[in-house]
Amino acid sequence: DFCLSRGLGDVYKRQLIMMLFFAAGMIIGAVSLKRADSYLSGAFSDMFSVYIRSKSSQSLCMNFINSLAVNAAFMLAVFVFGLCAVGLPLICILPIIRGVGIGMLSGYLYSNFALRGLGYCVLVIYPGLIPAIFALLLACSAGINSSYEMLLSLSSAKSQRGEGSIKIYCMRFLIICILIVLAAVTDLSLIHI
User: Fold this and answer.
1) Radius of gyration of the chain (CA)
2) Could you give the CA distance from residue 127 to residue 190 in angstroms, rounded to a whole number?
3) Which residues lie below 8 Å from residue 155, measured CB to CB, with a gap of 6+?
4) Cα angle value 119/120/124 (rounded, 5°)
5) Closest by alpha carbon to 100, among 27, 160, 43, 192?
6) CB count, 10 Å around CB of 171?
7) Tens place of pLDDT for every residue, the chain, 193 residues?
8) Are 40 and 111 in contact (CB under 8 A)?
9) Residue 78 host element (H or E)
10) First to last CA, the chain
């Protein structure tokens, strides 16, 4: 019952489990690309080439907005699911989805460029992802807690969720939004490496 606990130690357990979901997604993504047929590998290669060309030809402002938009989409999904009584399982899926994408990218770069691809990941991709993934894991933890509180308030005769809980939830997400802006700035600073 990892998602339903409320103590401080349980918050860390929730975040650890979200990290494990993310790591599982990365493994699934890397393995799926390795075992993919030539069509999927070719499509991923074309997509990565377009990504590199567009990233180097776009303005800094557009690169910032694109990086911010990807992270904001995940945060918005977690935020909305956190306001739903049945959002808990959907929140748990989001780190897996994010991990699959990053795992596919990492697997592609490693399988095609070996140590150069791994170096590109470490020097260019991962520094911007670290604060973004940290923000996603914090958001998932807050969203799980909020979704569970919503479920409790619906299942009990009295309302257990007050206006203060929603304000705290929104304040947590405001802080998390600062982290995704930091992630976009970090990603922006590494564009021309």
Assistant:
1) 18
2) 8
3) none
4) 120
5) 27
6) 11
7) 444 445 445 778 888 999 999 999 999 998 887 777 777 777 778 888 887 787 778 888 888 898 899 999 999 999 999 999 889 899 999 999 999 999 988 888 888 888 898 898 888 889 889 999 999 999 999 999 888 888 888 777 555 555 568 888 999 999 999 999 999 998 887 765 5
8) no
9) helix 60-82
10) 45
Q: Checking phi first, is residue 158 left (phi over 0); if not, alpha (psi -120 to 50) or beta? A: beta
Closest CA to 40 of 99, 91, 94, 111: 111
Report field, pTM of the whole predicted structure over 0.85: no
Torsion of CA 73, 79, 84, 89, to 10 degrees: 70
The answer to whether residues 180 and 131 touch, using CB atoms and an 8 Å cutoff, is yes
- Crossing angle for the helix pair 60-82 and 88-120, to the nearest 10 degrees: 150
Report the C-alpha gap between 65 and 71 in whole angstroms: 10
Rounded to whole angstroms, the Cα distance separating 159 from 71 reads 33
